[in-house]
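Reviewer has doubts. Consider these tokens.
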Amino acid sequence: MSTGKVLLGVLAGVAAGALLGILFAPEKGSDTRKKIAEKGKDYADDLTQKLNDLVDEMTQKIESVVKKAKDSMEKKTENVNSEL
């Protein structure tokens, strides 16, 4: 199994456990709904942050590969020009 699938499974389990814990807590329905909304917002914010971090990391890797490719092409062009 890939790490991403394991992480997604763990997050889903934690979310389900938290939701069940809130639903079975002996509180008023309005308080429970507020807690669910707050937890949902927290999870959404956390997921947004993780996705932003992933996009930033991927962007850096792509930029690095592009830079290496450009450098390689420049060296090959210099070698060809020096041979002429």
About this structure: The CA atoms of residues 67 and 73 lie 10 Å apart. The chain has one domain: 3-83. The mean pLDDT is 84.
